[in-house]
Amino acid sequence: MKALVMEDVKRAVVKDVPDPQIDSKGIVVKNMANGVCRSDWHMWVGDIDFVQPIIGHEFAGVVEEVGSEVKNFKKGDRVIVPFSGSDGTCPYCLKGDTHLCDSFLVPGVAYEGGYGEYVGVPNGDRNVVHIPESVSFKDAAAMGCRFMTSYHGVIDQAQVLPGERVVVYGCGGVGLSAIHIANSMGAEVIGVDINDNNLNLAKQMGAHHIINSINNDPVEAVQEITRGGADVSIDALGIAQTCLNGINSLKKGGRHLQIGVTTQKEAGYISLPIDDMVMAEKSFITTLGMPGHRFEPMLNMVGQGNLNPGQMVTDEISLSEVERVFNDMSDYKTNGTIVVTKFD
């Protein structure tokens, strides 16, 4: 099969590689669409060590082969593979928090991932999800990481309510997802970015207000729009400035949701205004992936047209174009969600 193979930091090459092999519990998925995620970029630039030669964790396709012990899937089924996989044996899995599984069965990390024509998924009955005919492969790929993470973060973790004011810093794939989901919950949403194209997409995805933080002080602008501060702030980038701006945009009692992970510059650490957070009772909340049992309600909302992740997709590319997108990500030049749909 063809695959994009990581050879070194900032070097990935399209090659012919062996097809994946599975055990009795595995499923081989013929890949139809794979989202190009900033997490992949983090591996490409060396922020995160890559352990698999084929990365990628936002893919959907058709079941090509199933192991002898697989009960819930057959060849030809349309499926998505959530990035937060699990083995079902650890205490977190047994509690239902499968996204926090100690085994951390992430495609492209625990096994070869979505930048290939086929993917062998372990523990297939647990780690593959049916998608209805009403959900396209392109839409499904847009859900595999950033959308589901935002869904879990906005609805389950930050618990955004109708009528609340939500500000989202960073209008890339994660931020646009958060904007769209918060809007669907009835919130008044503000999108903040330095890229006017991203801000235009934010309006299309449901932002009621947009702020270009190059031309305006975003914290002051948010305070003015909300008349005292947002109920919820979301940092979709993981940059120190956007994290702090999010916290400083909150009113007393506000909740900050951290979705973005840091870059090499922050190296995992951001200094927070703890005294202000304590005195104003501002909460700091994090989110990672989504428990498996939460996929059904999200897919139902997509199937009913209440959520439209495909609206974020701005380009469909081939494997050979992925490095160009990574380079553009380095300069924050990408807009929306870019999906690989050509694997030959």
TrEMBL record:
**Which Gene Ontology molecular function entries are recorded, alphabetically?**
oxidoreductase activity; zinc ion binding
What family does this belong to? Belongs to the zinc-containing alcohol dehydrogenase family.
Protein keywords? Metal-binding, Oxidoreductase, Zinc
The superkingdom of the source organism is Bacteria
Do the record's keywords include Chaperone? Answer: no
Please indicate if the UniProt record lists Zinc as a keyword: yes
Protein name from the UniProt record: Alcohol dehydrogenase
Q: Which InterPro entries match?
A: ADH-like_C, ADH-like_N, ADH_Zn_CS, ER, GroES-like_sf, NAD(P)-bd_dom_sf, Zn_alcohol_dh
Q: Where is the Enoyl reductase (ER) domain?
A: 7-340
